[in-house]
Amino acid sequence: MFFKLILLLVIIGLIVWAIKSRIDIRRKRITENVETAEASPMSVAIAELVAIAGGIYISLVLIVSFLKMQIPERVYWFNVSLDPLAMIAVIAALLQPIIILFYYRIKK
Question: What pTM, to 2 d.p., does this model score?
Fold first, then answer.
């Protein structure tokens, strides 16, 4: 039970870290213009996270279909039924901004 709680906290921490990293990346890429109204950085970061996860998921589905790989339809993780390709896509989308942020820090 303690392990499950720790794992859940780590996952929540990764999600928060990924969203914060996306916000930082967006601030670095865009010069701020006060005259134009735009969505909050948090909503933009979440929308980008979902969009990237969706793109990764579609790519994984196409790869698995093209290679005719046999993968399980559902994976049970802590009594939750998940699509394995969707789980991989979300994990990859969460790790992507963290890796980019590390790259920016190493580059400087």
Answer: 0.62
C-alpha closest to that of 53 among 90, 95, 22, 85: 90
Q: State the number of CA atoms in the 13 A half-sphere of 87 facing the CB.
A: 13
Strand partners, 80: 77
> Which tokens hold the place of 24?
């930082």
pLDDT digits (tens, 9 = 90+) for 42-88: 888 888 889 999 999 999 999 999 999 998 889 887 788 889 999 99
The 3-class secondary structure across 51-82, one letter per residue, is: HHHHHHHHHHHHHHHHHCCCCCCCEEECCEEE
Strands (E), the chain: 75-77, 80-82
